Amino acid sequence: MYSIGNEEILMQHKVAFLCSRQVPEGVAAKACRWADEQREEGRCVISGYHSPLEKAVLCRLLLGTQPIIVAMAQGLGRIDAEWGAHISAGRLLVISRYAESVTHPCESKCYQRNKMMMDLADQAVIGHASPGGKLELLCAAYPGKILFL
Question: Which end of the chain is more exposed for a tag (fewer CB within 10 A), N or C?
Fold first, then answer.
């Protein structure tokens, strides 16, 4: 695994947040309330922050001081400039299974990234898993770890 940032964050209790790209009405509001609770409680959240709702959750988490883990489905060559201050503060860890030469995520890499997050996390919260989708399939492999919003 490749990383940038505070690797000690990996030792903390971690909650994974995953969500399909398309979500039903009302899910976004629930996810934002959930993210605010995690921030206020100081809980470490790991996610790919790739889907639109996952990105919204990250924006809310970055307002706090709790640790955050970003799991990339590509190499670490393209780190968001906004993350620099959080990495320097020791509260953000960016991880990837892939070398820097891997520059684009694909469906397979995203699935492997999500599996890595599930393996690292102590529990997982699913904003929404589209019926028949890859996330629903992944959730079936981790029955004792999953909570749905």
Answer: N
The amino acid at residue 26 is G
What Å distances lie between residue 17 and 3, 34, 52, 89, CA to CA? 19, 10, 13, 22
CB distance 120 to 10 below 8 Å = yes
What is the pTM assigned to this prediction?
0.93
Strand order in the sheet with 68-72: 2-5, 92-96, 68-72, 44-47, 14-18, 123-126, 146-148
Name which of 57, 32, 45, 34 is nearest 92 in CA terms. 45
Q: Can you spell out the DSSP letters for 74-88? A: S-TT---GGGHHHHH
Which helix (H) or strand (E) segment holds residue 125: the answer is strand 123-126
pLDDT at residue 102, rounded to an integer: 87
Percent of the chain with pLDDT over 90: 82
3-class DSSP assignment, residue 99: coil
Residues 6+ apart with CB under 8 A from 23: 53, 127, 128
- The residues that bridge with 96 in the sheet, in sequence order, are 2, 72
